[in-house]
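Before any further analysis, backbone shapes were mapped to integers, which produced the following:

***
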Amino acid sequence: MNIIEILLVSFALAADAVAISICYGLSLNNNIKKYLIVGFSFGIFQSLMPIIGFILGDTFNHLIKSIDHYVAFSILLFIGIKMIYETKNNKNNEYNSLNFKSLIILSIATSIDALTFGIAYRFVYTTNIIYVSLIIGIVTFILCSIGVKIGNTFESKYKNISQIVGGVVLILFGIKILIEHLFLI
């Protein structure tokens, strides 16, 4: 893989994490430290998962591939519904305090495709997986940190509406993942 191919893969793998980072930004206070924490969490998991997939190789490919879409769908549906529910009931949003448990779960859920990439990578490419994974992680970190800022910009103008939209986006993204895998689109 050349650097252009690695960057294209990095952008593709980061897309779902960026979407969720924007949703985080919809409800986080304007704080650069929080932007970086979200970016770092998504970046580290996007970076580690291809390495784990590469190591696992074909041993667990059939197990992971058969359930990855159900796991991602369930997590995104749960978080999306929770965001909408909290807005309707005027509850304090847990994202304002940057709940690390939710962040880690979402980081894992959005990096399952990176795990699958690592499995496939083992059999196709000769470029060092550590090098590729490092670039994937850096690109994801940068894009997700920017995504949180973008979401935060919208949040300050449209407080409750933006949180509802963020919840709906997460639910729709989960449905998209499920449909793509079930119907092999």
The helical segments are 3-27, 32-56, 61-88, 100-110, 112-124, 129-157, 159-183. The chain has seven helices and no strands. Residues 129-157 form the longest helix (29 residues). The chain has one domain: 3-183.
